[in-house]
Amino acid sequence: MPGAIAFEFPQLYFTGLWLTIQISIFGLLSALVIGTIVAVLRISPIAPLRWIGAAYVEFFRNTPLVVQLFFFFLGLPLIGLRFSTDTFENIFRAASVGMGLYHGAYVAEVVRGGLLGVDRGQIEAARSLGLSYPQMLRYVQLPQTFRSVIPPLGNIGIALVKNTSLASTIGVTELLFAAEIVESRTFRAEEAFLAATLLYLALTIPLGIAVNALERRMLVAR
Amino acid sequence: MRPDTWSMFLNPAIWGFFFEGLRETIYISLVSVALSFVVGLLFALGRLSRRRWIRWPSTFYIEGVRALPVLLLIVYFGIKGSALFRPIFGPDFELPRFWAGVLGLSMYTSAVLAEIIRAGIVSLPRGQTEAARALGLSQAQTMRSVVLPQALRLMVPAMMAQLTTVIKDTSLVGTIGIFELLRQGRTIYTQFFNPVEVLLIVATIYFVICFALSQASRRFELGYTPRAARVKIQDIALRDQAA
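^ Those are the sequences you sent over. The predicted structure of the assembly is below.
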């Protein structure tokens, strides 16, 4: 059976899978928070806030994620910032934070598109009814954005799950690293990577189907 | 910060070392994009084919590969690349690491480009195909002389944007021993114990290249691509935004 090797090394594969899931969930949640904040900055009426938002997006989108991860893992401790004194915790958190910061930039662009898609008349009506700018964001602009951004956010989620594999480069024993360890022990590369492949597909394919289904429902609803 | 960690950058040899890495990064990106374009075009046409025995395997390849982490493909070819080609090139064949990296990157990028090209073809108005067919062109002729030239021109900005992604992804082939920019940087900071400074410089070099490219592709895009195709391509690009 393809992928059966995972049951010969359940400790490695399933701990790896669990780490992949944990990093994905933490990364996605923080990316959503960061992305929303940065998107609001980017459409803010105050110019310096817009510049900060734009600088954030351009910097994190135009440098490789591995470089960022190496920086969080090796660079930050040298300037006195450490996520944890425990080595394992430290790299795990560096990877999770790195995922959040990098994908937050992509989320920000999607959310910004959604915010700009809200009809200007609504914003003006809300403001002239006496809502402050933050209130208008909170009650008028952001809620309407939510629906249109779900399909693209799902695609970012899929990219994020795949990108957790980069955590292996800083030593997190997630799924890909587990497969590499099994390969080096058994020299059965095909089986070892096929098992990891199947486990990745088990995460990304359902996500993809969910995104497509949501996309279709959104189209109908419109 | 410790005082002497920047002074080494006054040495031109260090910059030569960075430059060697940058050259490798650019070289591997261009080769991968060229190869991926050819393979991606074939799979895009395959997925649009009316024959099921062509369409299904093409769809399977595109969707399967796009669902995988690009690093997994790179590591796999790094370990098994030589063995894969031994049946063809003889038992002593060693796949150069450069080509193992190109294979990993290209396999992934070809699937992404296939989707981008397909989106371009599908977004062309139906009238184009119908008119060409009514004028008596065969289906293959229609594709070659009418649909593809227009679709590919629409796709130029998206492909430039994809080149940015590929350049960022080349930072992963350092893991299989190709001395690209990041890998050169890692060698430097292991010698001089200054990862903060080196990584900042490496990040800046990537940033300058990728930012310039993405600005250029955005300029191309203005008023050029139909909106439906643009939305579709943005979705594809988001899912494939690796590393």
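The mean pLDDT of chain A is 89. Residues 83 and 90 of chain A are 5 Å apart (CA to CA).

Shout if you want it in another format.
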